[in-house]
Amino acid sequence: MPIRLHNSLTRSLAELQPRTPGQVTMYHCGPTVYSSPHIGNFRSFLFADVLRRFVEDQGYRVTQVMNVTDVGHLTLDDIEGGEDKMEAASRKTGKTAWDIAKQYEAEFHDCQHKLHVRLPHHMPRATDFIAQMGSIIDDLLQKGVAYQANGNVYFEVARFPGYGKLSGKVLDELESGARVAVNDEKKDPRDFALWKTDQKHQMQWDAPFRGGARGFPGWHIECSAMSMHYLGPQIDIHTGGEDNMFPHHECEIAQTEAHTGKQFVGIWMHARHLLVDGTKMSKSLGNFFTVADILGKGYSGLELRYALIRVQYRQALNFTLQGLDEARAAIGRVQQGRQRLVRFRDGLERAGSDDLATAVAAANEAFTAAMSEDLNVSEALAALSGLVNAGNRAQPSAVGAKSALAAFARFEDVLGCFGPEPKADATGDAPAELVALLPQRTAAKKAKDFATADRIRDQIAAAGWKIVDAPSGSRLEKA
Fold first, then answer.
1. Exposure pattern of 289-307 as b/e (b: 16+ CB <10 Å)?
2. What is the CATH number of the domain that holds 230?
3. Running DSSP on this structure, what letter comes out for residue 212?
């Protein structure tokens, strides 16, 4: 089944046709490490993770690159103005920009681990690729599509007729936005910086191109240098949040294609913004959450991951704490269904004759169809839920249970939000004081003291567990 993905450049679905058969190259705009990662950031990062997982599930060999921006990203993205975000964080905290970068990059990697992200093959830092950026800048200067002014280097937008084709902004709109912050040294207000000079800037390098002044790179040139270093001049898929489309990705296209003379990206993909309680995240509204904030409320990384990927990436996703509770319940239901199948597979429950072959085939087919149509995770979760229902209704054979468990393992490999296959008996994970009540309840039932048996059952239920009576004995499971 072909994989069809929405290409932001053509505004239509496109079949994934990698330049090298069987191999897919992906570049994902990663974090700017000036503050703690928030849940809006991770909607985009988790979308990229699910994309990679599914493409690999379909038999492709993937090379995935995600950058770490530790210099050059300005605070006013839409007009490429303001202060470097690293410098701004340094000024507010009193720490050096280098220390800020180190602190928040480490926090980002910790969040990746807690949200069960499959690590990219390469996660380069911008500050390690100054020389490669210089080579591109030098070439653009030699070709006459970039120019120097007072030590700064700008890309001349008028020399690239395709500028604006990704975002759909017409030249008048681009010029109007750029004039918010007039810069007289530019030939055109829309021109964007490739290299900047500022004696107060902490992170500075000798110019890595001929005739340049000491300074630091612009944000956009960084991704072009890093993607080409690892993936070559043309890549199959490039992702980011919708806020990256302009100016960042628009500028990436212009400078890269002017440099190489080739189409830069096969398919551009952009995730929608995350809303919280129906509005845009804002510290002033009190609805701004970092990943650490959510985990600090007692939710797991799996529950947060589920809540952030449960809606297809191009659809609006409204994040709420109630949604996290629903994620917890959904994961619990899947894991309980898997645990029941484990017991049949391992001979701890009396096996039946249901081979579940039809249900497993239908779930796999529906899951693949949903994910192949622009990563429709909502429909994929519905297919998975259908298999949970079928498994719970069935009296499966050991072979049937094994087949269903293999399907669940596949779904987990793609979505990554349920956790490993559960053990046959969760009693060992229950608090010792609850486990100690089981033989007391058994003795009460044997003595026909049903009031005591019921009291013990209610006590266990109040603690979030339930008693499952089976031929092999009673056990506890999470309610």
1. bbbeebbeeebbbbbbbbb
2. 3.40.50.620
3. P
Q: How far apart are CA 479 and CA 477, in angstroms?
A: 6
Cβ contacts of 352 within 8 Å, gap of 6 or more = 344, 394, 395, 396, 397
Residue 356 phi/psi, 5-degree rounding, is 60, 15
Task: Read off the tokens for 344.
Answer: 């049949």
Angle between helices 321-345 and 301-309 (to 10 degrees): 110
- Which residues are registered as beta bridge partners of 65? 27, 122
Residue type, 351: A
**In which domain, by residue range, is 390 found?**
294-415
DSSP secondary structure of 244-311: GIIIIIHHHHHHHHHHHSS--EEEEEEEPPEEETTEE--TTTT---BHHHHHHTT--HHHHHHHHHSS
82 DSSP 8-state letter: E
Q: Do 327 and 381 contact (CB within 8 A), yes or no?
A: no
Asked if residue 130 and residue 265 are part of one domain, the reply reads yes
pLDDT digits (tens, 9 = 90+) for 159-209: 999 999 998 875 565 554 555 556 778 998 889 999 999 999 999 999 999
Phi-psi region of 82 (alpha: psi -120 to 50; beta: other; left: phi over 0): left
The CA-based angle 335-433-429, given to 5 degrees, is: 25
Measured CA to CA in angstroms, residue 72 lies from 76, 82, 215 at distances of 12, 11, 10
Same structural domain, 229 and 317: no
The answer for residues whose C-beta is within 8 angstroms of residue 251's C-beta and 6 or more apart is 155, 192, 220
C-alpha span between 202 and 359 (Å, rounded)? 61
Range list of β-strands (E), 42-106:
61-66, 74-76, 81-84
Looking at residue 60, its pLDDT comes to: 98
Q: What is the pLDDT of residues 258-294, one digit of tens each?
A: 999 999 999 999 999 999 999 988 877 888 999 999 9
Please give the structure tokens belonging to residue 162. 């395709």
